[in-house]
Write a structure and sequence with these properties.
Layout (H helix, E strand, L loop, with lengths): L6 H12 L1 H6 L7 H25 L4 H6 L3 H9 L6 E3 L2 H11 L8 H23 L11 H24 L9 H11 L5 H27 L4 H8 L2 H16 L1 H5 L21 H32 L6 H16 L7 E3 H9 L6 H16 L9 H13 L5 H9 L1 H17 L1 H20 L4 E6 L6 E3 L11 E6 L8 H13 L6 E5 L8 H16 L3 E5 L3 H9 L2 H5 L5 E2 L2 H13 L1
Parallel strand pairs: 5-6, 6-7, 7-8
Antiparallel strand pairs: 1-2, 3-4, 3-5
Helix pairs in contact: 3-12, 3-16, 3-17, 3-18, 5-15, 5-17, 6-14, 7-14, 7-15, 8-9, 8-18, 8-20, 8-21, 10-11, 10-12, 10-18, 14-16, 19-20, 20-21, 22-23
Length: about 600
């Protein structure tokens, strides 16, 4: 047997970094095939009704949701690093699409679809650019509190927007949750009771499949391998049952039940998005919002699932994969996509081991649009609304508010502000308000850093806050620990604190600043420290430093601060060393 070239694994590894399909494709384990095929089939059963429902939520024809579930899935399988993430239309992105495009084009018009393609193109380019230049860290500026507040509010907006389909009434477009609620109340006398009955029955069936059926099947002794596919078949059962009911009882003609209607058969046509400067400027805020929010939703679930199998997720490569998926949607008649939480969990639970599962899903949907679209003619919109309603229930997370309130009042306030802003002034403006509130609370918190006077614990080398622990201090040496990096926003607070504390200790002749928590000092803080050192020196107090981190020490030396302080003998490796040395001088 010939020995493989030592360069092949290295080459495969390098190329696999940019084309993850090579990682699992060239070393595909045949034992993974059953799980991949099973997961691909189950997700396809979920995604077909969801894709059509989310397209209607976005104000687009139902087939657009199916088109967005073919090539984008294949492109992500080739370029994405998650082996379980299921990419495609999702509720939150669909709502953002409807909100933004509704302001630039009339619904059911060619301009509306063209704007959706342009939006997908912009999102794809933004995400690709961010991935290529490795800007994945930028999404960290959207805090968890803002995301939770936005997600909860968006789930309520999405859910309320689907009530009109259940009621069988038409409403004027509105971004405000409360305006939509008012319109629904006004339209209540015109409710279509047959449509409402179909919708509520569909919701009941879906909830039974999601919540009760898995427990029932478990009590019957079925294995998880059977429970997952059976319990996730709820959308398919709803689609088949409601189509048969509407067709057999002629509910659309006799009672005016709104149906999907004719869906053109055939694979999605190649489309060339047109993007002029004026349209691009109007869509840019939404494109940025979807690029960030969609990526955060995807990366969160991708990392969660990967950790269960000790797999690695590359955030920048994920941006490239999602960007390529959105470009694929733009050129095949789709609309913006991202990774879906519920579908990804199902994909993982059903046994998806590689990206082949997504390729199987995309292939099955391609077969549906080729041969089976006429079967959806009598599908009632109320049933698709039920699919969306049950899906967004999983987005609601009110427990986080109580948890954040106990941990951080500022984060809880950011969540509440974002939540109310999205409900009252709209999706995009709500995200912006939440982001600004989050940054403002951060600046306020860091502008008042935690600073503590510390003393020695017993005869140990440990020093703790004098207000929290029984410690002993030295009358001539004042030890102050600064628990924050220093920058322009908190230098005034630091200066005032130190001057007041020194004034409260008239016998102190030495001040030790413990810098263990300081990771960075900006120019404004350095200037303040230099002035403070000079003022305290004139007052008979010498300033010392301890536990300065290497990068901060380099920074202080380059700025000449150590020389201004009096040399390196004013800097101690540890607080114990500083206090031992200075206490000895005090007793001499």
């Amino acid at each position: 047997m010939s020995t493989p070239s030592p360069h092949r694994p290295r080459a495969t590894s390098v190329w696999g970094r940019y084309l993850p399909v090579l990682d699992w494709g060239l070393h595909y384990n045949p034992r993974d095939l059953v799980g991949d095929v099973m997961a691909g089939v189950i997700v396809a059963v979920m995604l077909i009704p969801q894709g059509m429902a989310y397209a209607l939520l976005a104000g687009l024809p139902p087939q657009v949701g199916l088109y967005a579930s073919i090539l984008p899935l294949m492109l992500y399988a080739v370029l994405g690093t998650s082996r379980a993430l299921s990419v495609g239309p999702v509720a939150m992105v669909s709502l953002l699409v409807a909100t933004s495009i509704g302001q630039v084009a009339a619904a059911d018009s060619a301009e509306y679809l063209a704007a959706a393609l342009a939006l997908a193109l912009m999102i794809g380019l933004i995400q690709l650019f961010m991935g290529v230049v490795r800007l994945g860290f930028i999404v960290n500026f959207l805090s968890h509190a803002v995301i939770v507040g936005f997600t909860n509010a968006a789930a309520l907006v999405i859910g309320l927007s689907q009530i009109r389909h259940l009621m069988g009434v038409k409403l004027p477009p509105s971004e405000s949750f409360f305006a939509t609620a008012r319109h629904l109340v006004q339209a209540a006398p015109n409710v279509n009771w047959v449509s409402l009955g179909l919708g509520l029955a569909s919701v009941a069936v879906l909830l039974f499949f999601n919540r009760s059926l898995p427990q029932l099947l478990g009590r019957l002794g079925l294995s998880q391998a059977w429970i997952t596919p059976l319990s996730r078949g709820g959308p398919l059962v709803v689609v088949v049952a409601t189509v048969l009911l509407v067709w057999r009882l002629n509910l659309s003609d006799r009672f005016g039940v709104a149906i999907v209607g004719a869906i053109p058969p055939g694979l999605p046509p190649l489309s060339v998005p047109t993007l002029d400067l004026a349209l691009g400027q109007r869509l840019l805020p939404t494109a940025l919002a979807i690029s960030f929010v969609g990526f955060m939703e995807s990366i969160a679930v991708a990392k969660s699932l990967a950790s269960k199998r000790r797999q690695r997720i590359d955030a920048n490569q994920e941006l490239i994969g999602l960007g390529a998926a959105n470009l694929g949607a733009a050129f095949t008649g789709g609309y913006p996509v991202t990774g879906g939480f519920s579908r990804s969990v199902v994909n993982f639970s059903a046994g998806a081991n590689t990206g082949l599962a997504s390729i199987v899903t995309a292939s099955l949907i391609a077969l549906v649009v080729l041969f089976f679209t006429p079967l959806f003619y009598y599908l009632p919109q109320a049933a698709l609304a039920a699919v969306i309603l049950v899906a967004v229930i999983n987005l609601l997370d009110f427990k986080s508010l109580g948890q954040l309130w106990r941990v951080s009042r500022a984060d809880a306030a950011s969540l509440a502000i974002t939540f109310m802003a999205v409900l009252t002034i709209g999706i995009e403006a709500g995200i912006l308000v939440g982001f600004v509130a989050s940054v403002a609370f951060y600046l306020w918190r860091t502008s008042r850093p935690h600073i503590a006077e510390v003393g020695r614990v017993g005869d140990s080398e440990h020093f703790r806050n004098v207000k929290r622990h029984p410690v002993h201090t030295c009358a001539g040496v004042l030890a102050i620990r600064i628990d924050e990096s220093l920058y322009f926003a908190n230098t005034k607070y630091l200066e005032d604190y130190l001057i007041q504390t020194v004034a409260e200790h008239p016998t102190a002749t030495a001040l030790v600043l413990i810098c263990s928590a300081i990771n960075h000092i900006d120019g404004s803080a350095l200037e303040t420290l230099e002035t403070l050192v000079e003022d305290l020196r004139e007052a008979g107090v010498t300033v010392y430093l301890s536990e300065v981190k290497g990068p901060v020490m380099d920074q202080l030396e380059k700025a000449g601060f150590i020389h201004h302080l009096g040399g390196k003998d004013k800097v101690f490796l540890s607080t114990h060393q500083a206090m031992t040395t200075l206490e000895r001088h005090e007793t001499v």
